[in-house]
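In the lab's daily routine, each protein ends up as an entry in a very long ledger. A line of letters takes care of the sequence, but it says nothing directly about the fold. The fold becomes a row of whole numbers, each drawn from a learned catalogue of backbone shapes. The protein below has been through that process, and both of its lines are reproduced in full:
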Amino acid sequence: MIDETSYPQFYALFGGYLNQDSDLWGETLEEIVSCFKRDSSPEEIQDTLAEIEKFRQEAGEKLDEKFDEACGYDFDPVLWGYTTSTFFDELARILTT
């Protein structure tokens, strides 16, 4: 699971929305992330966007591997039709529109 101390917004997003019970929030990634967005303050949304960039920078070329280590059992972007990079792109798009 994502480290709550280093990534508090990821922890909330993956722990509360993008998990085994994600169907409670919607059928598509956009529906689910929109629920997270609705329930979050503008500051929390900005923090989530910053965490996307922080994770990308820290993982570097091992983005898929590092994401799998952090979330592998709880969330796999491949099952949703994404790579880790394209998932982060889509997540940022949803959060900023």
